User: What shape does this take?
Amino acid sequence: MYRLGPVPVRYHMPMRLFVVTLAFVVLGLAERPARLAPIVEPDYCTYNYAPSFMLDSARRRLHVWYCAGAAPGEVRDRIVYRHAERLGGRWRWSGETVALEVGGAGAWDSRHVCDPDVVRGRFLYRGRIYGYAMLYLGTDAEGSTHNQTGLALATAPQGPWTRYPAPIVRYTSVASGGIIRMEGRWPVYRYWGVGQPSAVSLDRRGRLLLFVSRGEETDGVEMMTVDLSDLDRGPVVSGRRKLSTRGLRPASPGSGDVWLTNIGIAREARTGRVWMLREDIPARDGRFPSFISARVRVARSDWAALQNGQTEWHETAEIGPAETGWPRNHNASFVRDGWGDLRSGATAGVGVSLAESYEAAPSGSDWLWSYRIGLVDIPIRVSGNR
Assistant: This one.
């Protein structure tokens, strides 16, 4: 939902039915479109970003969940849904419906919910079996703080979604992480928290490998095994550890620092590879907004090594202004099947959040209303792959 930075990144969009041909860009082509077309065009004073895409087994229906505002001109995140049918070589998108609203008064996620990631499985809760789990970021605070990772369940992609009442990955318990001020009636905490989840199924049942961004007394990306098989007994989180940055490009030339946050994960089950999207450092071109990235980087590793904690990444591509025509590119995720696997052989689809940039901060929130979601294709067979 928001970033590891001083300004929350959100936007919203109540939308009409659109028939849109998805524009795809293959990285490395000499000729690229001037600007990637968004999957749908938001209305004025609305925004959308942070998508989670799922392609069905027949490749005829594409589901997407993403972050959107509650009303035109309002910056309060909720999670919405739509799907597209493949007809005559084009995607016909459904109207937008609400998947998950903010929690009720006093709930841990009563201010914002965002950053959905949806995985199939078999999840028991209150005596009922659910086939879909949505991991998401939620908070009861402002200032991009006190984020935690929650869970909702459904029997079908379109919902309805049943919220699990407590976060499954909680905000830090250290004393220094408490409230430091108020913004209106909402508290602001010292730390960003844990969120921006990405997960893949480990057994096509209830066990997931979950990744979350962490911005607390330590930062980076953490991975853990989460067993959601029997939620009447509660989620079981184990093996929580920091994700390796070995092989990733430093934040700046000559620097030893690696910027690792807000990732998307997918497997390529046929080859035993795992793929990661990560946001680059915030843009340094002197333009506004300066707190989000201009590009998303693509890296691969070995699935077995990832699970064993021996990960070494190999960066293969990037998605930036040259590929999309948009000056800001962030909050990306792979187009995967329900288990977290890529269904394409030579290319993989990526949903990326797009935004404008300005010489100076425009009045009001006009910069925020530029947020849209686009789709690109990236090659997954590159020199050096097995």
User: Anything to note?
Assistant: The chain has one domain: 19-379.
